[in-house]
Design a protein that fits this description.
- It is a single chain.
- By secondary structure, the protein is an alpha/beta fold.
- It has a single domain, classed as Rossmann fold, CATH 3.40.50.
- The protein is about 25% helix and about 25% strand.
- Strands 3-4-5-2-1-6-7 form a seven-stranded mixed β-sheet, with helices on both faces. It has a three-stranded antiparallel β-sheet with strand order 8-10-9. The protein has a two-stranded antiparallel ribbon with strand order 11-12.
- Helix 1 links the parallel strand 1 and strand 2.
- The chain starts with a strand and ends with a strand.
Length: about 220
């Protein structure tokens, strides 16, 4: 099976917790079972320094991002696992923690950063990234990739999705204004979509119940 594993971190490239451990181990194990697994994460400086044989795989033009996004490709150190890095320097090329600034507060543009990750994952899932490769399954992890399943489910022909929650304490909850800034489909603003007590929840994109072509449909 062809699987795109979407994550915000992966050991040994960069990690803050258990998600990084799983993302660095599970895709490698599945590849050893002869599945065609590929890893997708942001092109943080630490990741770009460590990925082996890094080269440009594609240049993406996305409606929701004003500049071209470069997709870099290489191998996870010590393995044969292909790695794609979403290279958008304005969002990912910064020092320190992946998610928080030096004062401990979340980066103010975290919604834009991880919405971009989900849009790139969606483009790959729909075979719109000029990679000559389309996954059968897109495996998303935690809120940072939570928009991917709900974006993919806008299309009748798409890969299956799996959504794994590693830490429910972090749900990617932002304001209604943020939802509008991300230019997400207005139909997603509902109890059965991404709305959560008047706010907007990334993680609901992976677990929400929505209607697809008029019928109840479970996103993942």
């Amino acid at each position: 099976m062809k699987t795109l594993f979407v994550t915000s971190e992966a050991h040994p490239l960069i990690k803050t917790g258990g998600l990084g451990d799983v993302a660095g181990a599970l895709p490698v194990a599945l590849r050893q079972l002869r599945h065609d697994v590929r890893l997708l994460l942001p092109a943080y400086p630490q990741a770009k320094e460590q990925v082996k044989s890094l080269q440009t795989a594609a240049e993406l033009e996305l409606e929701d991002h004003p500049e071209k996004v470069t997709l870099l490709q290489g191998k996870l150190p010590g393995t044969s696992l292909p790695v794609y890095l979403v290279d958008a320097p304005g969002l990912f090329d910064r020092p320190g923690n992946l998610y928080t600034a030096s004062d401990g507060t979340g980066w103010s543009d975290n919604p834009q950063r991880f919405a971009l990750l989900s849009h790139v994952a969606t483009a790959i899932g729909l075979d719109r990234a000029t990679l000559d490769w389309q996954p059968d399954i897109v495996h998303c992890n935690d809120w940072q990739s939570g928009l991917t399943p709900v974006l993919l489910h806008q299309y009748a022909v798409r890969p299956k999705t799996v959504f794994t929650i590693h830490n429910l304490a972090y749900q990617g909850i932002f304001s209604r204004e943020t939802f509008e800034q991300l230019q997400l489909p207005e139909a997603l603003w509902s109890f059965d979509g991404l709305e959560f007590h008047g706010n907007f929840s990334f993680i609901k994109g992976g677990i929400c119940r929505r209607r697809h072509h008029g019928q109840p449909h479970l996103c993942p």
